[in-house]
Request: fold
Amino acid sequence: MLPPMGFKLPESVLVVIHTPQLEVLLLERARQPGLWQSVTGSREPEDLNLETTAWRELLEETGLVMGRLTDWKLVNRYEIWPQWRGRYAPDVTHNVEHVFGFLVPQISVATLDPEEHIAQLWLPWQEAMTRVFSPTNREAIGQLPQRVGT
Reply:
């Protein structure tokens, strides 16, 4: 079902970018300096599926394409923070987030869109967990050792 014109769909992806050594790429939000996160983004009506959304967001937010995208089959439902609720239709209070991993061969420099992110940082997974502001992002990063099989 499409949202009313001008509103975002309450369905998104979270993409944890990481190396085989479990170093995680974090991005600092431009509009909320000090808030660090993995790649995130809402599904667009024209996206064929959630994998399409994940690839689109990876390209838009980092420019990274050399890696392996994996659907973790992890779905989070959470209440949308009040400061961001205006982006959604008036009756929407919750978002459904689908988690993906993106394995890159080594630490790479991302190409950031300055409208979205102002800095990037690669950290060991344990440290990355302490830096992200989102509980679902923290939980996803915490699953990396099991997901990667180390």
Remarks:
- The mean pLDDT is 93.
- The chain has one domain: 11-148.
